[in-house]
Amino acid sequence: MGKIHSKTLQDLEFDTVLEQLSVRCNTELGKVRAMGIAPLSDTESIHRVLGQTSEYLSSLISDNRIPNHGFDMIDGDLKLLKIENTTLEISGFRRIGAICKTIAEHKKFFKKFKEYFPILFEASEEIQLNLEIPTHIDAVIDRFGEIKDNASDKLFNIRQDINQVKGKINQSFASALNTYKTSDYLDDIKESVVDNRRVLAVKAMYRKKVRGTVMGSSKTGSIVYIEPETALKYSRQLNNLEFDEREEMQRILNELTNRIRPFAPFLSEYQDFLAHMDITAAKAKYASEMNALLPRINEDRKMILNDAYHPLLYLSNKLKREKTYPQTIELHPENRIIVISGPNAGGKSITLKTIGLLQLMLQSGLLIPVHERSNMCLFDKIVTDIGDNQSIENHLSTYSYRLKNMNNFLRKCNKNTLFLIDEFGTGSDPELGGALAEAFLEVFYERKAYGVITTHYANLKALANELPHCTNANMLFNSKTLEPTFQLVLGQAGSSFTFEVAQKNGIPYSLINKAKKKIERGKIRFDATIAKLQKERSKMAETGSKLHKEELKAREEAHRLETLNSKIKSKLENYQELYDHNQRMIYLGNKVNTAAERYFQDNRKRVLVSDLLRIVEMENSKRRKKSAKEVKAARVKKAQVIQEVEKKVKVIRQKKKVAKQKAFVAKKNKPRPVFKIGDRVRLMDGKAVGSIDNLEKNKAIVNYGLFTTNVSVDQLELVEAKK
Fold first, then answer.
1. Which of 374, 351, 355 is nearest to 475 (CA)?
2. N or C: which end of the chain has fewer CB within 10 A?
3. What gap in Å lies between CA 204 and CA 201, rounded to an integer?
């Protein structure tokens, strides 16, 4: 992919997006590098960076939050490491140690959750973990930023001597304090500290009475600070030891710097990785704030933007609590160029900028605010001509500049180019400028470039109507209120509503009428016809939408009634069969009852048997005896039905088994929650919910109200954490 020109980035306000992204970075290096983001040059890098941002965004709304990536810059420390015989300060070692530990945390996290974050895991695996650096630093510097006593044997001995001397100083000072306390030589405060030394606060008039060295006096001069003579010799000894301590500490830091120096390339990689993570996190936060996502990226040269928002406008309106109107637009091989027309202030330029800015953001690794069914492709070049391009420095008029820009377009334009031109052809004589613009558009079309232009020129609208892979579009405008609706409609050019807008803005009708007389009657009729067609199209769109909704409702109702009718019919047939069966049973029952009553009266068994045989023979005569062939066919059919049912049951069981295994694997891979007393839980294979009364080792006592049970925490799943 070619490099996108800085003029395109400026026209589409890409720098404002980077400023907003930079604000959301946590580290200074991240903020600086965020401002240097530009569209990526190869498809693989675009997919990788977009995937990383999408994964980070998913972590913001899940329980698996990515560890904190904050760090202090080590650029200065890295420069020192490149220079021989230099020594890093303790603060530098602490910064380096913190970065190493942060890297270790990230590598451990992404390894643990690589199934959730495969692309970020792959990026972390490129960084080689070095455990020697933090080990060397931790051996010398403690967590408070001080050099440890055991950093060397010599330092350990020096500090022991220092502690002993300090003890002697305190003893001798206490002795002197007790001596002079009984006299009236000392001020009320008794003692103070000057240059890290304890001194006696002596009244100025008794300064010669106290033996020692004068270390200073108060602002008023009423107090003189004197170090007692008994403590003085120990103070000199302490000074010598502190000097030795500083020298030994410097030697230790020199040695530590030389140990760390070979690892400078690792540290540079670590910082680069964390800066990249900071920018990725900022992209995810930015995406979250404007409901952005990663659309499907295709190689079929299709750009299908559904409910696309201009990011800067959306966030600005979100702060003001105002509505932002989304746009839906499609560019594909059968519809490569769209010519948008309509009145000014109708949203044409915003639509143009929305398309361009979203494309730039996507190719720079940022997620975009569109509907999830959107589909995008990538372009090698994106060229724009938007806004007032007058160049004072080069003494060029707007039109001259635009012609120069068009010449640049003609050199770059090919099938992998997206061009966006606002107010195409303006700046010169309408007829001549329109004719030249028409010629440019034909060249863009022949080179199979993709693009969107806005215009008021009738000849460009007509050309868009004639070219098979070019489409007119207009921004809907309410002709009654003369207010824009900010909705793009493909398929028809729009009227400029020139005179109507002028009238709404207070221009006298007489002046408008005078202007109408100055132009060709055919032009007015053409514009009026377009305006009328636009109104009719708007009405038809509304009517079509209503009819479509009614048709869907009617279909649903017809389907519901048909289903209901078939159910009722089936029930009626079942009831009829049941009724016929019952009637037959009643008839047979009556006959048997008559025979039984006769037997009861005369007690004649032969007559009873004869009556019963007659009844049975009469019923059997109604039944048709099946042949052996029919019995066999029925048996085969029954066997086939049973076989088919068994097959279906087997498939259903298999699906249930797979679903159960997936659910089990998902549960197994899901990080186990940390339970607390009071959490509401349930057994993994149960439905009853209880609360945890006690936790001991790996066991929990769960209270279900009527009873309690002691179970392993591995068998529990969290329903609701204690608030």
1. 351
2. C
3. 9
Residue 153, number of CB atoms within 10 A of its CB: 9
Question: DSSP string spanning 592-644?
Answer: HHHHHHHHHHH--HHHHHHHHHHHHHHHHHHSPPPPHHHHHHHHHHHHHHHHH
3-class DSSP string for 124-148: HHCCCCCCHHHHHHHHHECCCCCEC
**Across 129-133, 172-176, 381-385, 425-429, least confident range:** 425-429
Question: With pLDDT > 70 as the criterion, what percentage of the chain qualifies?
Answer: 85
Region of poorest pLDDT, from 59-63, 155-159, 382-386, 496-500:
496-500
**What does the alpha-carbon distance between residue 575 and residue 2 come to, in Å, rounded to a whole number?**
77
- Look at residue 408 in the predicted model and tell me its pLDDT: 74
Please report whether residue 203 resides in a domain: yes
634-663 tens-digit pLDDT: 777 767 767 877 887 888 888 888 877 777
29, 271 contact by CB (below 8 A): yes
**378 and 483: one domain?**
yes
CATH code for the domain of 83 = 1.10.1420.10
Any idea which residue has 């170090």 for tokens? 227
658 and 616 in one domain?
Answer: no
Is 131 found in the same domain as 185? no
Q: Which residues contact 652 (CB under 8 A, 6 or more apart)?
A: none
User: What is the model's pLDDT at position 37?
Assistant: 92
Residues 183, 267 within the same domain: no
Domain carrying residue 684: 680-720
- Alpha carbon dihedral 551, 554, 556, 558, in 10-degree steps, equals -140
**What is this structure's pTM?**
0.65
Query: 229 in helix, strand or coil?
Result: helix
In a shared domain, residues 342 and 407:
yes
- The residue among 218, 248, 278 that closes a domain is 248
* Same domain, residue pair 25 and 98: yes
| Closest of 364, 305, 361 to residue 490, by C-alpha | 305
The position carrying tokens 């602490």 is 94
Instruction: Say if CB 475 and CB 346 are below 8 A apart.
Output: yes
Domain shared by 239 and 274, yes or no: no
- For the chain, what's the residue count? 723
The answer, yes or no, to whether residue 3 has pLDDT greater than 60, is: yes
Question: Stretch 442-467: mean pLDDT, rounded?
Answer: 85
Report the C-alpha gap between 499 and 516 in whole angstroms: 8
In whole angstroms, give the CA distance from residue 27 to residue 102.
Answer: 14
Q: Which of 21-35, 291-305, 482-496 has the lowest mean pLDDT?
A: 482-496
Tell me, yes or no, whether 320 and 409 share the same domain.
yes
> What tokens were used for 699?
């066991």
